[in-house]
């Protein structure tokens, strides 16, 4: 069982909050903290390519920097697209050429290392896609089948991560999307908190598509969206009036995700890839990324790995 | 064998911080998952110091044994040690400190030491770490009579806590009156090594202008406990002699406004050669706890994790 850390991170510096990409020193401190508590690897965002090239010269050089601090490698990259229905939106066919070209460029940029997955939010923000119809979902699925072929040629799996505020987030929308995508080309990346917020049972959903799942974000939440925050303009994720902080590290009190039974399901289905831990925006409301990262790894080691061992023994 | 622990003090910067169960649980889990197997407690008094003394622990965890279970549930093996400042006033028994330079206070000193030692033994610990002498700014220079009184006090304590299986470690800090006139060396020479040991704090030695590796070498036969931490500056102007230095120098940084005297083990400047210290301990055949400290850290979790990386990847392989 191997754990990877999705590299959201903030820390304080003499000039205020920083992320780890500010300097080699800040990256060194970040990676050592992640390695110290027992993560095996990291995930990252591919928009960091510019900083990687500037500071390290190549993606391979950056991965070597990671490895020198005791981590195995970079496992996944998240392609955080800046969706815009005018130029870049999966449900708008006229924008597909732009998206396909973006992925050709991206896969070339990251060809210097071996990645397991490239992760995408497969739809625009919900309000940019609504009304969400079957036709729009089919158009979206057609795009990702083509993108999946591009990434497959590069040796990387395309996998879809459904934020609670994206255009494909309800169980009905999810089922429609996966019915129209090719299992050989389009995979699923289960974020436990995002589905929980959207009132989709992460365990039931995972079990329905286990053979297409290529990764997870183990992340908790204390809130479900019961009033339609997912449609909030201009933003749901950090601007919702109801909820200042949606995401929490697993292992803390008050969480809604049933991680123990989720882990049992993961083991039952024979999943063998890395398990990614995420708690984006952990610093909100006085939180501390370092502490959250340690607490989540403590929970993984002391609770989930034991549950997994029990399940294997059955 | 060296056992690696971490001091809890950095998580509790002010008297009204770090009082809730969740905070204690998270701190212990951060220490555990960062690769440490023990935790050192710090003495304190009153209801806002739940981990400060055996009475408060019992009030919050049902019993000392209950707290031991809480520690083990976090993935730690033991409470390695307890730091006790004998000038602490305990509301629990309405006492006002046990000045070891005052023979009239010795009975209280011994009683409180046994109070901690009994609980520490139950928690799997082995060393009671004490501030052995007043701050330099509070007393005249220690003459031979004062050293003799201190020696008698600490030998009495060492004898009493030995009955609980606990050793005594004198913790030399850079504000100590033992810093002048070879006070530490005189006190060690005046005490029975079987009863009184040294809890060597590497950063305190460095800030006092003493090389930590040389200190290990010089005191190898007396070291019963180690606080391993890096120092960021040296008290070159002897500010330790000023009154209220424990506030104006230790906390506020003195005339130079030093922002932090203590740093993580691999943070520049490296005024403590941590690998050198560990290598010297190994050469000396030291067996016991090395408690990593980062008191006054503004980012406790980060300090533990960075120090955990250093222990796992650099120091433990040496040991």
From TrEMBL, chain A:
SUPFAM superfamilies: Xylose isomerase-like. Keywords: Carbohydrate metabolism. Residues 32-287 form the Xylose isomerase-like TIM barrel domain. It comes from the Bacteria. This is Xylose isomerase-like TIM barrel domain-containing protein. It comes from Pseudolysinimonas yzui.
From TrEMBL, chain B:
InterPro entries: IolE/XylAMocC-like, Xyl_isomerase-like_sf, Xyl_isomerase-like_TIM-brl. The keyword Transport does not apply. The lineage of its organism: Bacteria, Bacillati, Actinomycetota, Actinomycetes, Micrococcales. This is Inosose dehydratase. Pfam families: AP_endonuc_2. Gene3D superfamilies: Divalent-metal-dependent TIM barrel enzymes. The keyword Transport does not apply. Residues 34-295 form the Xylose isomerase-like TIM barrel domain. Keywords: Carbohydrate metabolism.
């Amino acid at each position: 069982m191997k754990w990877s850390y999705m590299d959201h991170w903030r820390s304080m510096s003499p000039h205020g909050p920083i992320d780890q990409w500010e300097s080699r020193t800040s990256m060194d401190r970040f990676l050592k903290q992640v390695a110290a508590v027992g993560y095996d690897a990291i995930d990252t965002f591919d928009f960091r390519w510019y900083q990687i090239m500037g500071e390290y010269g190549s993606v391979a050089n950056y991965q070597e920097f990671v490895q020198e601090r005791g981590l195995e490698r970079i496992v996944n990259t998240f392609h955080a697209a800046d969706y815009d229905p005018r130029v870049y939106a999966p449900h708008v066919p006229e924008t597909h050429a732009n998206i396909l070209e973006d992925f050709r460029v991206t896969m070339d940029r990251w060809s210097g290392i071996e990645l397991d997955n490239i992760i995408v939010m497969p739809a625009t923000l919900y309000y940019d896609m609504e009304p969400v119809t079957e036709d729009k979902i089919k158009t979206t699925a057609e795009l990702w089948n083509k993108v999946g072929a591009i990434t497959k040629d590069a040796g990387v799996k395309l996998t879809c991560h459904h934020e609670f505020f994206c255009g494909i987030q309800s169980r009905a929308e999810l089922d429609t999307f996966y019915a129209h995508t090719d299992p050989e080309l389009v995979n699923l990346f289960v974020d436990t908190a995002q589905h929980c917020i959207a009132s989709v049972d992460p365990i039931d959903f995972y079990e329905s598509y286990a053979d297409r799942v290529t990764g997870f974000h183990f992340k908790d939440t204390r809130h479900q969206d019961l009033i339609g925050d997912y449609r909030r303009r201009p933003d749901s994720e950090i601007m919702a009036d109801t909820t200042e902080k949606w995401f929490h590290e697993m292992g803390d009190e008050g969480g809604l995700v049933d991680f123990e039974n989720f882990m049992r399901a993961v083991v039952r289905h024979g999943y063998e890839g890395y398990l990614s831990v995420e708690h984006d925006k952990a610093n909100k409301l006085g939180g501390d990324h370092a502490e959250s990262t340690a607490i989540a790894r403590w929970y993984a080691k002391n609770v989930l790995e034991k549950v997994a061992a029990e399940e294997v023994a059955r | 064998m060296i056992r690696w622990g971490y001091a809890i003090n950095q998580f509790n910067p002010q008297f009204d911080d770090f009082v809730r169960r969740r905070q204690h649980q998270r701190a212990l889990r951060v220490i555990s998952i960062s690769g440490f197997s023990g935790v050192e407690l710090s003495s304190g008094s009153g209801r806002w110091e739940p981990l400060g003394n055996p009475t408060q622990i019992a009030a919050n965890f049902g019993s000392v044994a209950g707290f031991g279970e809480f520690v083990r549930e976090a993935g730690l093996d033991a409470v390695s040690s307890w730091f006790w400042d004998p000038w602490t006033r305990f509301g629990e028994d309405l006492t006002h400190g046990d000045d070891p330079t005052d023979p009239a206070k010795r009975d209280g000193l011994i009683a409180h030491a046994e109070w901690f030692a009994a609980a520490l033994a139950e928690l799997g610990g082995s060393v009671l770490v004490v501030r052995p002498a007043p701050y330099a700014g509070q007393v005249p220079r220690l003459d031979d009579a004062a050293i003799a009184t201190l020696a008698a006090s600490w030998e009495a304590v060492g004898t009493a806590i030995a009955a609980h299986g606990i050793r005594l470690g004198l913790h030399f800090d850079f504000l100590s009156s033992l810093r002048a006139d070879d006070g530490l060396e005189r006190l060690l020479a005046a005490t029975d090594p079987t009863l009184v040991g040294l809890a060597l704090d590497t950063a305190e030695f460095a800030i006092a202008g003493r090389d930590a590796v040389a200190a290990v070498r010089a005191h190898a036969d007396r070291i019963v406990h180690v606080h391993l931490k890096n120092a960021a500056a040296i008290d070159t102007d002897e500010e330790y002699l000023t009154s209220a230095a424990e506030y104006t120098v230790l906390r506020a940084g003195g005339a130079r406004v030093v922002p932090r005297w203590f740093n993580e083990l691999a943070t520049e400047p490296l005024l403590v050669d941590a690998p050198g210290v560990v290598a010297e301990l190994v050469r000396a055949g030291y067996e016991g706890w090395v408690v990593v400290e980062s008191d006054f850290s503004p980012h406790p979790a980060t300090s533990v994790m960075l120090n955990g990386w250093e222990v796992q990847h650099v120091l433990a392989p040496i040991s």
